[in-house]
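Lab notebook: predicted structure, single chain.

Context: the supervisor wants predicted structures on file for every construct in the current expression panel, including those that have not yet been purified. This is the next one on the list. No modifications to the sequence; it matches the entry in the shared construct table.
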Amino acid sequence: MKKKALCSLLAALLLAAPSISHATYIFKNGKLIKAEEVATLSVQEHYSAAMEAYQNQNWDELIHQSLIVIKNFESTPFALDGYYYLGVGYFHTEELEYANRFLTTYLKKQAAPKYFEEAIEYKFKIADKFQRGARKHMFGAETLPKWLPAREDAIAIYDEVITALPHHDLAAYSLFGKAQLHLKEEEYKSSVETYQTLIRRFPKHPLAAEGYVGVGEVYLVQSQQSYPDQDFLDLAQINLRKFKQDFPGEEKVQVAEDLLLKMKEVYASDLYDTARFYERTKKPQAAYIYYTRIMAKYPETTVSNSAKKRLDKLHYVPPAQKAEEVVPAVEMPRRQQTPSPLLELQPQGLSVQTEEAPHEDVQ
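Prediction complete. Output recorded below exactly as produced.
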């Protein structure tokens, strides 16, 4: 059934695609080539025509002349450069997968390509476009629409750039783009590891500061999408501390601090919801514990202010405090001078299970 549906979809796509012209082919040098790609001039003249098209940014003509050089004069040095210019032409006509393919061919055909760095830079630009949402043709067919996401291709190309130019600015930007892509794909561990590689390899690069901010963003997203694990908050605080040590006075530190505060709001909100549950279910002692915990652990949050207001309305006094009001401490027997366990605990360390599920009763 699935196979039949897939065939129907493919048929519909083929019908919707632009019609394929009935090109005339000629058998030359042991292979079929289109008639319009057969050389009519010398290799030098076709190559010159390609260079003129390149200078005039006539990308379609650059592609056309480069194909003629490659298919008719494959054994010449001109053909080797032709692969590079073919990649350039396809890049500027937004045929990114073909551009990447021919640039790869260009780099593999020579031990020391003349346009090595330029080709790597174009590859980086292709990966960046894929990372930002550019898509590929279905089944790699030029006549079919560009529907397929190309994020896996982007990661593969970023890795090529990082390997080819490990200490170049392009490697730093590739690491940054790769980390962003992992975050989009919800591959949080890989995103953090890639940001940290960027920071280690390029500690003085401006993108290293962005890397610290990126790590903070990953931890914030994780805390928002799952149960707020305390480990995420601890890791975010360590990340911020290292950021301040490595980049004292950096403006982006404030961005990282804001991200950490948002995380604290998430954790405080989780405790607040639990406190409100206990308040609604007439368990004032448990509600008191959670409200005071919020105020002690996350005092800088807006949730802490809300917790204080609820605590004031709760009018709950812990039993130990009530006892002190009735019997002054100086008149109490010596054995009672030892503070009550509840009074002795600071709000953030109260012994009741502060992370228990709301449905559990706290006596």
